[in-house]
Amino acid sequence: MAVLKILLPLIVGLCAYYFYSQESFSAEMVRGKRVLVTGSSTGIGEQIAYEFARMGANVAVTARREKQLQMVVQKCLELGASSASYIVSDMSNLTSAQKVIEETKSKLGGLDYLVLNHVGGNVGLHLFRGDMEIVKRSMNLNFFSYVQLTISALNMLQESGGSIIVMSSMAGRIMSPFTLEYSAAKFAVEGFYSGLRTEMRLRKINLPITVAVLGYINTDNAMKEVSNKMTMEPSSKEECAKEVVKGGVLRRREVIYPYWSQKFILILRDLMPNLVDQLVGKSYKLENIS
Ligand SMILES: NC(=O)c1ccc[n+]([C@@H]2O[C@H](COP(=O)([O-])OP(=O)(O)OC[C@H]3O[C@@H](n4cnc5c(N)ncnc54)[C@H](OP(=O)(O)O)[C@@H]3O)[C@@H](O)[C@H]2O)c1
Ligand SMILES: *[C@@H]1O[C@H](CO)[C@@H](O)[C@H](O)[C@H]1NC(C)=O
Question: Can you give the residue ranges of every domain in the chain?
Answer without folding.
Answer: 29-118+133-280
